[in-house]
Hints:
13-stranded mixed β-sheet; 5-stranded antiparallel β-sheet
Amino acid sequence: MAMAYEKLKLHITPEKFYVEACDDGAEDVLAVDRVSTEVTLTVKKNVPPSAVTRPIYGILGTIRLVAGMYLIVITRRKKVGDLLNHSVWKATDFDIISYKRTMLHLTDIQLQVNKAFLAMIGHALSMDGFYFSTSYDLTHTLQRLSNTSPEFQDMSLLERADQRFVWNGHLLREFSAQPEIQKFAIPVVHGFIAIHLCSINGKYFDWVLLSRRSCFRAGVRYYVRGIDSEGHAANFVETEQIVHYNGNKASFVQTRGSIPFFWSQRPNLKYKPKPQINKVVNHMDGFQRHFDSQIISYGKQVVLNLVNQKGSEKPLEQAFAKMVSCLGNRMVRYIAFDFHKECSRMRWDRLQILVNQVAEIQDDFGYFLVDSEGKVVTPQDGIFRSNCMDCLDRTNVVQSLLARRSLQVQLQRLGVLHVGQRIEEQAEFEKVYKNAWADNANACAKQYAGTGALKTDFTRTGKRTQWGLVMDGWNSLIRYYKNNFYDGFRQDSIDLFLGNYSVEEADSAHPLHVQADWKFLALPIIMVVAFSMCIICLLMAGDTWTETLAYVLFWGTASIGTGTIILYNGKDFVDSPKLVQKEKMD
Length: 586
């Protein structure tokens, strides 16, 4: 299989960047012209000895901002483990290097805008969860990799990657156009990877949990919901659980993704904005595209819809059920499970109702298994597509239960578990298993909602706790703040990084300079002053109680009045994206 270079050195001169391959026997050097931006191959002897040299661990790609082109490189990495004897790394630090040696060609406004765009790229890179391997294709499941041609095996990692999961695909567009330089290009996935060497009954095996976030319709919680016209669902994540024992490899794959029709839930300062189903579009076209592509990728689909069947979530559940019925495709089956109702008053043991309900289907779908000689023993014939509103907390809990059930069967078949033994009884492994699934929940939640996941106390310990409820309340408050006052910037960062918005060099016509309306500053100040005066009047009583009451009523009315106006105009006060195209905003 074609591999990417693992050991690299970056040499910087005023005219060029040189990226030298330092793997054994490698002679290639990538030359990037800082003026023409041309990328070519050269040899080591052409690197000037005067160049400033530093080690790097990969090229993330290039991006055009107002000041011109920038090179983004990986400067630090941390080893996650070995996946089927291939090193897997987490990228932990990056550098964004300008092709231009000075910024003198920019006006003050252009400098300001360029700085804002750089901050966005910096924020996108600070999102935890970028992983890569120079010798293993992290973008494909074991089953997809086993079903390939010899030509596929000879392709570069970039060329053969599943584009849904290559988060630096836009940044590597120049590399995609030049096959001869693709050994310098590393596809980077975003999500979560845990690799553990485990032991049960004295038998050692690798247990891997790998979540790949799709870069199509990617974004943050309230600004990206539902699907786009191509059928790509928001917050779509493919999660694969892998077991490697004595050369045998088993894999169980599940997916999660937003309810796949056109709906939105824009922030408006309310704790839980009301979801809106788009009334003017034909939902079935995008809905069908979504499931057509899912069936091609994964086979039969069982939709596990975990949303509430009353209140504001009810119309979404009803619409989803109706569309699956109208689809009339025997490959797609719909199961609704009102998670919050069934598990109310901390009766989380009732999740077993759902697990038992789908047990026969899960046995029918099976799992992917390939023996030590590389022969496919069993394929996975179908997939569970789970969702709640955010596809985070409820979804992760259910996925971890289904994955454990599959793992139980796999470990028995491989001879790791004895007949009659259960995973739950293996205390050491159970701890590793639960913590990895809780860490997976936290990673996906931080990337989409801005905080760690809720309900992870159940995933980690198997039971719901009072402290878990307190932590869920705290995380919910932080989510509220971020979703209302920070997510516009987060969404813009992701759109810029993924190439959904392109910057024209030295362009001063940009959407970032929006003049703030007076009310955005005046009303919150008036409300804070009025509320403060109300408290002061209560603490420092006047000569008579009627005088005190009058002051309190006046300032209280002023603070409530301005607060009501702010809430009424809630959509105007939240941090909205400025770079997003219309389709994302709908």
